[in-house]
Amino acid sequence: MLDFLRTRWTQGTRTSPFPEGPADFPERFRGRPALDASRCVTGCRECRAAMPSQLVVLGSDDRASLDVGACLFSPEEASACERGAISYTADHRLSTRARSDMVSGVGALPDLEALETRTQRLFGRSLRLRSVAAGSCNGCEGELVALGNVVFDMARFGVQFVASPRHADGMVVTGAVSRNMREAVYRTYEAIPDPRLVIAVGACAINGGPFQGSPEVENGVPADLPVDLWIAGCPPHPLTVLDGLLRLLGRLEERQGPSNS
Amino acid sequence: MTSFHSVGLRNRRAVSFAAIPEEPMSRFRDTVLQAVRDGWRVVALFGSPESGGHTRLVAVLGEDARGELGVLSTVVSGAYPSLTPECPEVHLFEREIAEQCGVVPEGHPWLKPVRRHPVDHGSSPGGAVQDRERYEFFQVHGEEVHEVAVGPVHAGIIEPGHFRFQAHGEEVLFLEIMLGYQHRGVERLLEARRWPEAVLVAESIAGDTVIGHASAACGAIEALARSRKTPRAQTIRGIALELERVANHIGDLGAIAGDIAYQPAAAFFGRMRGECLNLLMTLSGNRYGRGLIRPGGVRFDIPPEMAVEMRSRLQVLAEELSGVGHLMLKNASVQARLEGVGVVSRQSCIDLGLVGVAARACEVPRDVRHDHPYGVFRFAHVPVATAWAGDVLARTLVRWLEVQRSLAFVIEQVSALPRGGILAECNALRPSELVVALEEGWRGEIAHVVITDDAGQVRRHKVVDPSFHNWGAVAAAMPGNQISDFPLCNKSFNLSYAGHDL
Q1: Do B107 and B192 reside in the same domain of the chain?
Q2: Which chain A residues are Cβ-neighbours of B186 within 8 angstroms?
Q3: A114: DSSP letter
Q4: B127 and B231 share a domain?
Q5: pLDDT digits 0-9 by tens, B325-370
Q6: Count of domains forming chain B
């Protein structure tokens, strides 16, 4: 008993200061990618050869845009542009309501709009989620599990993962949706009572991630499932997921950027 | 004629493909079976497509006591006599060959689906394996015998897999495991994508083993390119690998505590797993070490001030861990709850060809860092931790010992980094060669076998995650246990679904 009390005392309180305090990341942390338009030459296309993902999208006018949802957050995606136009910021906020909002000229994401009042009233203080891993690597799942630990402690906001779709208000999909999991994804969605949310977490669930183009995967959540929240990352940091969820629930309205940018 | 063990194959030492003995099927079979009787272990057995619709079977064997590797091959088409009846450790490899190459191992006792591919390497599976959707699970019949089906979607945040229990009351009579839900076509992507970009796929084979798989894949590519890593790069890889091991083992200790409702250790360990991941983030910019391991070395250095910071954070962690570890493992009710649950006998371990923590908990001291040393592990040794009972407690103790030994290793290495660069040139791959890169990931032996064609392109990239060897142990450990102990038993192995499914 004394040992227990001593250990408990040594361990102390470890809950992250987020969201009241700053979200701190080390210097090498790779957050939201950004495109420096002044260094990007229209029609250059050179980055395409060395780019290991679909991060750079070329428009009909040959201008480059960044698709944050497709970003694998690897050092190679930044070094693919020899002019240094692509870089990673320390911004951990990587969530949007619409897939199309992930694409922009400079890599900026619009402010995330909360759920409409009625659904916000339903889910705002109590949200129960069902996790479906579907053709993933277990990286995103590792970070979702971490959200339950004492540091991130998602339950303090009333958000929890539950053991049955019947108990859930929404589904969190991770992974590129393998052909072997496609049916399970639909059946889980159908088993969740209406109104229900669909949350796509990680580059795989958004566009297939590193498995994009493999004949064994669907390249992310099938288009006919209505996704309410897209969270980019490979895998997203737990604070990235928490930030997206809290903004969706209207619990985080002020613009809370990174402390060191 | 050269014999399978005299081709000069070692961990990360490539050999000319032409030097590999090619034997007729019957001799190939006899050689492999005799080698296993003589104490060799099957590291990998896989098919590679040949012209004319034939398949070349390649067997990679390991002799751990002498640190030797052997390789031999044979060409088959249509069918061949299965090795499994006499060598159970290849049962899953042969099922995989049937599914990937459409070659039937005749006489295989249980030729059921592994992952389902319509067409993979070369030919169509034809009728080699049953349709996964129509597969009928083994059933036990009798009074009050009932069946419990779990998955693929689970109650917690867990990868997908299906478990079918035959139970009598609370007692499990039989467990059958169906995997393949995470199948993403990893091997084909590794073969089709260019290096070095393909390393992003290697990092995603199993997202909790980023360092392990990326190091094994890069080790294979570096050997084929004759790239020589600097000592500093090798040490940083070793540090990252052991940090990954510590992070995952701590996470497992916490999860085991959670499964027996010993909440304080679950909470403390859960937090400390994150501390290790944060150290990897300080080093590489990502909590799982993505972006660090690249062909030729590492992408990020440890400058002196970071080494000092890492060292002091690790020392605090080591002290905090020690308190929690003793709190949990000295507790009699914790010991009683873990003891005698999910036992794997030493003989089953050898027959099934288990690796890693699962093997070491049965007093089978297999450890690539010790048996087939590479990189920094040729100069700095991490003692091999073993236990003997083969139960959940033994696997917990092995993890706990490894956490302490790996932490001591990292603290020592981070304080004495060799000078020099971190990334060497890694140019074109040598044509027509085969290389085996073994790595002791936190779950056990990771093997990447890469074969190049005559133009120096990757022709076959075979990945064997330790889970591929070990899933059979979960099924073998359950009969006789209570069905409610399945989560605890499963967690004590904590195998990868993604690593198995590829």
Answers
A1: no
A2: 211
A3: P
A4: no
A5: 998 999 999 999 999 999 999 999 999 999 999 999 999 999 999 9
A6: 2
C-beta atoms of B291 and A14 within 8 A: no
Judging by DSSP bridges, how do beta strands A64-67 and B433-440 pair with one another?
A: unpaired
Question: Is residue B418 a contact partner of residue B239, using CB atoms and an 8 Å limit?
Answer: no
Q: What is the pLDDT of residue B123?
A: 45
* Whether the complex's predicted ipTM surpasses the cut of 0.85: yes
pLDDT of residue B314: 96
Note whether B308 contacts A: Cβ–Cβ < 8 A: no
pLDDT at B128 (0 to 100) = 58
Residues A193, A132 share a domain: yes
Q: Which segments of chain A does DSSP mark as H helices, in order?
A: 2-11, 47-50, 75-79, 117-123, 139-146, 182-191, 203-207, 238-248
Which tokens belong to B225? 């390119």
A180 with B181: Cβ contact below 8 A: yes
B278-289 pLDDT per residue, tens: 999 999 999 999
Q: For residue range B12-24, what is the model confidence (pLDDT) as tens digits? A: 999 999 999 999 9
**Predicted confidence band of residue A256 (pLDDT cuts 50, 70, 90):** low
pLDDT in tens, B442-484: 999 999 999 999 999 999 999 999 999 999 999 999 999 999 9
B182, closest residue in chain A (CA to CA): A135
Structure token digits, residue A68: 């944050």
- Is the model's pLDDT at A251 over the cut of 90? no
- Mutation pick from A9, A32, A180, A207 vs chain B, by most beta carbons of B within 10 Å, is A180
Provide the residue range defining the domain that includes B407. Answer: 186-501
A202 pLDDT above the threshold of 50: yes
- In the numeric block, the tokens 């809290």 are attached to A246
Tell me whether residue B150 is in a domain. Answer: no
Cβ atoms within 10 Å, residue A222: 14
Residue B81: Cβ within 10 Å count: 13
Spell out which residues of chain B touch residue A133, defining contact as CB-CB under 8 Å: 157-160, 182
Q: B91, B109, B134: which is the final residue of a domain?
A: B134
Work out the minimum CA distance from A46 to partner chain B, whole angstroms.
Answer: 16
Note whether B210 contacts A: Cβ–Cβ < 8 A: yes
Domain at A64, CATH number: 3.30.70
**pTM (two decimals):** 0.94
Summarize the confidence of residues A207-219 as an average pLDDT.
Answer: 93
Distances (CA, A) of A72 to A133, A211, B138, B197, B372: 18, 11, 42, 12, 33
Two structure tokens written together for B94: 């042969």
pLDDT at B122: 46
In a domain, A177, yes or no: yes
| Interfacial B residues in 267-296 facing A (CB < 8 Å) | 267-268, 270-271, 273-274, 277-278, 281-288, 290-291
Full domain range(s) for residue A45: 33-92
Chain A environment of B277 (Cβ under 8 Å): 146
CATH number of residue A126's parent domain: 3.40.50.12280
Residue B275 confidence (pLDDT) above 90 = yes
Mutation for A interface: B162, B184, B276, B286, most A CBs within 10 A: B184
What percentage of chain B has pLDDT greater than the value 70?
97
Output the six-digit token pair for B430.
Answer: 């040598």
Cβ of B156 within 8 Å of Cβ of A234? The answer is: no
Q: Does residue B233 sit within a domain? A: yes
Among A74, A94, A138, A260, most B C-beta atoms within 10 A, so best to mutate, is A138
CATH at B390? 1.10.645.10
Please indicate if any CB of chain A lies within 8 Å of the CB of B208. yes
Tally the domains of chain A: 2
Decide if A159 contacts A168 (C-beta within 8 A): no
Which of B204, B213, B306, B443 is the best substitution to test chain A (most A C-beta atoms within 10 A)? B204
Phi-psi region for residue A16, left (φ > 0), alpha (ψ -120 to 50) or beta? beta
Task: Measure the CA–CA gap between B101 and B123, rounded to whole angstroms.
Answer: 6
Count chain A–chain B contacts defined by CB atoms under 8 A. Answer: 180
